[in-house]
Amino acid sequence: MKGWIGKLLRVNLSERSFRSEPYDEAFAQKWIGGRGMALKILWDELKPGIDPLGPENKFIVALGPISGVPAPNTGKAVVAAKSPLTGGYGDGNLGTRVTAQLRKAGYDLLVVEGRAEAPTILAIEDDRVEFHPADSLWGRGTYDAEEALQRAYGKSAGILLIGQAGENQVRYAVVRSLQGRAGGRPGMGAVMGSKQLKAIVVKGSSEIPLSFHEDYRATTRADLKKVHQLDRQSGWSRQGTAGVLAWCNEVAALPVRNFRKTSHPDAWRIDGERVDAARVATYGCPFCVFPCGIAVHDREGRESELDYENIGLLGSNLEIFELDQVASLNYLCDDYGLDTISAGSVLAFYADAIEHGAAEGSFRFGDAEAAKALLGLIARRQGVGNLLADGVMRMGRAFGKGSEAYAMHVKGLEISAYNCKFIPGMALAYGTSPIGAHHKEAWVITYELKETPRDSYGIEKARKVIELQRIRGGLFEFIVSCRFPWVELGWDLDHYAGYFRMATGLNWSLDDLYRVGDRIYALMKAFWAREFPNWSRKMDYPPPAWFDPTYADREGIIAGKVLEVEQYDRLLSLYYHLRGWDERGIPTRRTFKDLELGEEMKALEPWVRLE
Question: Which CATH architecture has domain 420-611?
Fold first, then answer.
């Protein structure tokens, strides 16, 4: 079985035990890796209804057949668990040295079970696994803690760790690595914290198996140079993802004032040009040849690595337009291990709820210093921070007084930085994202605004969302690799099918790989339906505010316009039909069978009526 190592490492923190487990070729070819394998393990091994922050949950690090082998941007790893934020399937990816080191240690996956009696560092070196005390690191931020771990284990070691937010089980705590990478928005850091697992450190010494070893190496070495040259020609990494901010402001898609507005005249002060001008360093993931991590100095003089999402949510959405202050908020989130998207949305919702009489407090939009203090309270779950640590869905339920309508989330996950109150296709992408409102699954907004009528609810938008989900949420999440060479530089998808063929020896086409993506999406939806037996299509809706004319812009290019609920519902039905799902949004018996999910269908039947 080339391309895969064919083994996973299972660690039980309660028992301080571990074992290596083989998996067969059928499992590898059906689920490929990354999100696919993590999802299948969680589906098989978690009992429905378990507490995501209890010892029964499992924390998984999952890699794919091209992970960690030099090729354009293959230094990514998937982290997955049942989400403490949403209650459904949760995952995320991040760049980390763990990717190559875990595979060199002899494993494609790491499955962590149970709960340690005391704060713990899990140290893996080839076939040796040790449990080291983390008392000296517990309570410390990710920057400081990772530096200590590098001194102890060496700079070549792969490290995944959490900050105070994960330790205190903030429901949107993330996993951190390389002092600039973060992943697992639906609370993967909180799951590590619930297990008293401060860090995972990995070192390996073996060679990763490939089918056509020399052909692969020669091809990918050349491709690394080609992708780097494409970036130099395009100049994309000059602004990185921050370059999209000015465009979002122009087309009325920017989150401003808890998504109440879609543009702002001061947005230029935090746009990509200003980020590039303030650049003091540039960082990237392993095997990245066009790094997008642009670091600037924050108000306190620290390096803070910015991208569009954290600028949009911690900047314009809070009406903070001082770049160094946005950088300070971002630095604190990174150090505490808070997801920047959810943290920005939580703060904005809190200010909005206070302003509209639903909550008590003195926090106001534009108050950067108060926002900094609140982030500390959230990370430590102190005072009002204890409620804010639970995310906007639970905050809205607690505040009441109509505030749930403007709690900006889908399925409990806060919306990332695209304001879609009048962008139906992107609203559908958020609604049908299988982890909650995340743009990474189907970033359809540029296609929609550049190639279709903005006010269209036609089937072409549903088709495009599915197409992008197959690629972004499917292919890139299970092979596992960064999508940016394709998204930003036009690096053809056929290259990835080629890497897969050379790594595994399997003569698969892109369509074969997309079929795996469809299988994964069907099982992710089954996971949700099993956890929520009263599943309703309303859970695939964006927030009520996007349908309410009272939340429409009062001026600008979309003044007075919002989504039409009946039209959106029709678009959602078109999406379900194309996927082979019923009107509730659950795969039909025929679809389960067509995707070779017969066993999974039988496991779901006691919980949900299938059509």
Answer: Orthogonal Bundle (1.10)
The confidence score (pLDDT) of residue 546 equals: 98
* Residue 552: count of CB within 10 angstroms of its CB: 17
CATH architecture, domain 7-203 = 4-Layer Sandwich (3.60)
Specify whether the CB–CB gap between 466 and 578 falls below 8 A. yes
Q: What is the pLDDT of residue 606?
A: 94
Rounded-to-integer distance, Cα 332 and Cα 326, Å: 10
Tell the CATH topology of 237-417.
1.10.569
CA-wise closest residue to 546 among 450, 341, 407: 407
Question: Exposed, middle or buried by CB within 10 Å (0-12, 13-18, 19+), for 324?
Answer: middle
Q: How far apart are CA 556 and CA 261, in angstroms?
A: 10
Show the tokens assigned to 507: 């003569």
> Mean pLDDT for each 10-residue chunk of the chain (611 residues)?
95 98 98 98 98 98 94 95 98 97 98 98 98 98 98 97 98 97 98 98 94 87 94 94 97 98 98 98 91 95 97 98 98 98 98 98 98 98 98 98 98 98 98 96 96 97 98 97 94 96 95 98 98 96 98 97 98 98 98 98 96 95
Helix boundaries (H) for 268-339: 272-277, 308-314, 323-336
In this prediction, residue 562 carries a pLDDT of 98
Closest C-alpha to 402, from 357, 360, 361, 364 = 357
β-partners of residue 160 are: 200
pTM (predicted TM-score) = 0.98
Which DSSP symbol is given to 267?
Answer: G
Give the model's pLDDT for residue 212. Answer: 82
**Encoded tokens for 357:** 């009489």
User: Residue 209 carries which DSSP code?
Assistant: P
Strand partners, 135: none
Task: Give the three-class secondary structure for 83.
Answer: coil
Taking each helix axis as running N to C, give the angle between helix 323-336 and helix 340-355, from 0 to 180 degrees, rounded to the nearest 10: 120
What is d(CA 397, CA 390) in angstroms, rounded to the nearest whole number? 11
Nearest alpha carbon to residue 117 among 14, 12, 11: 14
Q: What is the pLDDT of residue 507?
A: 95
Instruction: Tell me where in the chain the CATH 1.10.569.10 domain(s) lie.
Output: 237-417
- What residue spans in the chain does CATH classification 3.60.9.10 cover? 7-203
Q: Say whether 131 sits in a helix, a strand or coil.
A: strand
Query: Could you report how far apart the first and last alpha carbons of the chain are, in Å?
Result: 37
Residues in the chain: 611
Q: Which residue type, as a one-letter code, is found at position 605? A: E
